[in-house]
Amino acid sequence: MARNPLSTLLHRTWWVLLLRGLVAIAFGVLTFAQPGVSLVALMLTFGVFTFADGVLGMYAAIRGRGLSGHWWVLLLWGLVGVVVGVLTVVAPAVTALVMTIYIAAWALVSGVMQIIAALRLRKEIRGEWLLVLGGALSVLFGGFVLAQPGAGMMAMLWVLALYAVVLGLLMVLLAFKVKKGVRMLEV
Predict the structure, then answer these.
(1) Counted domains in the chain
(2) Residue 175 belongs to what domain range?
(3) pTM surpassing 0.90?
(4) Does any domain span residue 185?
(5) Inter-axis angle of helices 96-121 and 5-12, to 10 degrees?
(6) pLDDT digit string (tens) for 84-121?
C-alpha cells in the first residue's frame, strides 16, 4: 500500500485548510455585519481576504512540493488569490464593474483549481466531495457575477458574504476530514 503524496500533503497541512475556512467565514460574517461599508472598504477587505487565502495556499503547495508532482495546482490556486488581492489593494479606486470582474475571475479560477484538486484526490481522501462542492460553488458564483456585471455593489456584497461563509464552512469540514487521515491505496 502506498499513500498519494498530494493526499499526504493535505493531511500534514490540514490546519491550513481549517485556517482558510475560518478566514472565509470571518470575512463573510464581517461583511454581513457591516452592510453600509463603502466600496473602497469592501475592495480592501476583499483584497486582504484573497491575498491571505492565496498566501496560505502557496504555503501548503511550497511545503509539499517534494511530495507530489501536482503541488503546482495548489500553488496556482494560491497565486491567483495573491495576484487578485494585490491588484485590489493597489488600485482601490477601480470601478465597481472592474471589481466585479476581479471577483468573478478569482472565483472561477479558484473553483476550477478546487475541482481539479478534488478529482485528483477522489480515491485517496474521504470528503473530497466537499472540495468539489466548494469548487462548483465558486464556479457558479463567478458565472453569476459575470452574467450580472451591472448589479449594484450592495447586492454583490450580500452574495459575496454568503459565498464566503458557505465556502468557509466547506473548507472547515474538509480540514477535519483530512485531519482524520487519508485512505490507503493498494499498489
Answers:
(1) 1
(2) 5-179
(3) no
(4) no
(5) 120
(6) 888 888 876 565 577 778 778 888 999 999 899 888 88
